[in-house]
Amino acid sequence: MTNFNKVENKLNEVQHTWLVTGVAGFIGSNLLKKLLNLNQKVIGLDNFTTGDKNNLYKVQNSISKLYWKNFTLLTGDICNFEDCKLACKGVEYVLHQAALGSVPRSLADPIATNINNINGFLNMLIASRDAKVSSFTYAASSSTYGDHPDLPKVESKIGKPLSPYAVTKYVNELYADVFASNFDFKSIGLRYFNIYGPHQDPLGAYAAVIPIWINSMLNDKEIYINGNGDTSRDFTFVDNAVQANILSAVANDEAKNEVYNIACGSRISLVEMFEILRDVFGSHGQLYSQDPVFRNFRKGDVLHSLADISKAKDKLGYVPTHDFHQGITETIEWFLKNK
Known about the structure:
Layout: H1 3-13, E1 17-21, H2 26-37, E2 41-46, H3 53-62, H4 65-68, E3 71-75, H5 81-88, E4 93-96, H6 103-108, H7 110-130, E5 135-141, H8 164-183, E6 187-192, E7 195-196, H9 209-218, E8 224-226, E9 232-233, E10 236-237, H10 238-249, E11 258-262, E12 268-269, H11 270-283, E13 293-295, H12 310-316, H13 324-337
Parallel strand pairs: 1-2, 1-4, 2-3, 4-5, 5-6, 6-11, 7-10, 8-13
Antiparallel strand pairs: 9-12
Helix pairs in contact: 2-3, 2-10, 5-7, 7-8, 11-13
């Protein structure tokens, strides 16, 4: 039995109150589904700028009516401090996922990225501190490693940020550290590495590569690779991120005031990923015969990412449940079912 299995069993026995910001987003809605299936009470905050109400409907349709009654949706904005205070009232565990994601979006509109990811984060920190929540877990980012060349990425070694988005995520970590030293407010930051899975939007202007490619294969459209295809990523199935959030929320104080890499500890190139996706689609009777189209490398991106996840394993008991092939198979099956 894994550490996470033990945590799940304990949560099934006792109901707690959780706040998930960005609850209608990709990771937020997956967290919601898992927590409700553990019979937890969940407050969700979202302004639906990037979140999708359809994600909430899909969660509602996939769980029992009894569990769905444990969910309360607050339509609000983390940039509004009063909304944050209301959302934190009576909450034990905060899982702060709300942000404006995407490196390209931050290059196109750095002001909006700064307002949401820094001002909004600070609002949530203060509201959570004042509400005396039991724990505060927030979505950090592997983009914080910036131009540091070492592989695998170790939490203690970062470089210069390569985008406004990366700057905001690093500032989140700095604020969390300041609140720990000045207010004894304990938190955990999770540096996500390329999270993918069900509920991820394939159609938005700043959609991630995996849902875009899946949607292109579903509709027999061209697939574009930025660069020569050697670019590699430590792609991480969303269930692994969900596990990490819950483990962090209930972690002991010795594990807090830290940041952790959340990934699989392995990487594949974009060309390799293309072939895996095409093979999985083929095994499900969906043939894709086109070759990828190569184009210029995208500004702000890093060439390679690979995480050292030993710290999360040691201090949180985190063990990835899905490698890339398992995760991408489940993801494609979900998209086929929901197309």
